[in-house]
């Protein structure tokens, strides 16, 4: 860890981020950063956090009540992600720590990737490349790597926030898909019309989707919301795409469902316990696996880092963050 010392507020940047963003933060904070991107144990993290006024976190760091117990100086936690299931918001609020996330800047990039994963899964893109590289392509055949059509099929979306809506627009306007969704609450009529999306029950969503995309925020309440029971309600030709959080899907049940043909295929960018991936998933050809990169375009990751920094600077210079999660 690298530190500088002054009278300014003390900021811990838990992981490597864009160096120019760290330099910008140094103009306002006494920064302890981690350019080598060492993975900090919870004990190391707790130790570094003591005496800090603020912390810039990524989705990998769990900031819970136990972690916060000895952080008497902490005033702010700026999370470089739109998802904040790694933060215990009630625990932060209870000790008066403001939390922020990075909404909006990653919506379209994440929706692009959701669609990339959907297309790759339906048309077996990564499997086909492995097959070709392994030297299996000796002649054209009518039935080589037959996939499933995307255009004209039914796109199901579970979780219809900003990213869900951006995926719906791509599906409806770009691919002529019939879009159905389920969400905690139904969207207003104008937004539904713009997305050309129809609200259905959770059961109908599972039953009718050809491609089901998960985009809902993770919470303890929806842990393993998609398990064997739900997978059995899906079409045997359907694919499941998860760009939300790993804990939403029971990966062991999914591997079983992919193996026995309960559903046809899956595309996963997130995993329960990542960066570990359930070993059964690694043995299957009908699943596309990517390492939590849905928001990973150069421009968007930079925008996320800058928004995380802007939140810190705004709060410590003007007393008000840009995208607070638990304002007073
Ligand atoms: C987010 O912003 O929540 C993404 O998952 C981080 O890549």
Automatic annotation (TrEMBL):
InterPro entries: D-isomer_2-hydroxyacid_DH, D-isomer_2_OHA_DH_cat_dom, D-isomer_DH_CS1, D-isomer_DH_NAD-bd, NAD(P)-bd_dom_sf. Residues 12-326 form the D-isomer specific 2-hydroxyacid dehydrogenase catalytic domain. The keyword NAD applies. The keyword NAD applies. Keywords: NAD, Oxidoreductase. SUPFAM superfamilies: Formate/glycerate dehydrogenase catalytic domain-like (SSF52283), NAD(P)-binding Rossmann-fold domains (SSF51735). It holds the Pfam family 2-Hacid_dh. Belongs to the D-isomer specific 2-hydroxyacid dehydrogenase family. This is Gluconate 2-dehydrogenase. It comes from Brachymonas denitrificans DSM 15123. The lineage of its organism: Bacteria, Pseudomonadati, Pseudomonadota, Betaproteobacteria, Burkholderiales.
